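U., I forgot to send this yesterday:
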Amino acid sequence: MNNMQYNRRSIRLQGYDYSQSGAYFITICTQNRECLFGKIVDGNMILNDAGEMIKNIWHKIPTYHPYSYLDAMCIMPNHFHAIIMTVGADSISAPIDSISASTIGAEMDLNKRAEMDSAPTLGNIVQTFKRYTTIEYIKMVKQNKLPSFNKRIWQRNYYEHIIRNESDYTHIYDYIQNNPQQWEMDTLYPNTL
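Result:
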């Protein structure tokens, strides 16, 4: 067996601790960029059953990872965008760089976070999201509510960007909010692949 076969290039920032407090922009694409979650009609995303399930599971992420705070989110036909904030166990009271809590509106239960021994990474959060959405998608296929899929619903990796300041946050927030209106110009639009 070729040992190089499993060496995938990491897109993570070398040396960065993804378990520390931070604000992150993530994009997760479906396998083969299949449009599984609904469609865009007149600049609005119309979620199908799979899209509604994705939304519901995303909103449960703080239940699985109580140190996290969910911000802007957008489900597109073949991908998912979100901003997520985390509070690391070793920096409970640390500010998230120069992004003010009033701008983000974060209302985190810091007492609960103070009880943590270690904080999972951003990758752990994404893994949880992918796992639970895949399990639920499979259940819905078995109930004949959704069409079957080939091997997996999500691509193996995901895109992440560390949000470094308020200007960066505002730009990303606006991008997420306006994504459905820009669908036909999106690099993930099926005709541009």
